[in-house]
Specification:
single chain; mainly beta; Immunoglobulin-like; three-stranded antiparallel beta sheet; about 15% helix
Length: about 140
Amino acid sequence: MKTRLLILTVICLMMASFFVYPTKATANNGLVTFSKKTNSPFSFVRTHRQGKGITATWGMQVSDNVIDFRIERTYEDPADPNAYWEELTVVLCDGSRSYSHTDNNVSPGFINYRIIANLVDGTTVTSEISSVRIVSRK
């Protein structure tokens, strides 16, 4: 009975934190993790299967101070600080609210993408990670 009460208390506390702090659920290799919202200039980052490739789409809240975007991917654990991130391409910022790039050279597995915005002051802003699982190549 004490164990059930403890589990119920923990669940209630976890649920209460969702109402107090805005959170976002993200999938990481099949596990769902929650993180607090940040003041990122990215309004969204999405990836989805498109034909034989993966299309990454992202939007910016304000793109006045952005020069360009680097699209990177890794097949490794994105939480690992030593993971190798491969640069796929650079997309110039033209003031649009949304951008996209299709990666046509993908292999089966978990593929993680991130977008790095290069700002005019020389700093960078990295988006959240968006993951896609490819079971087999079509």
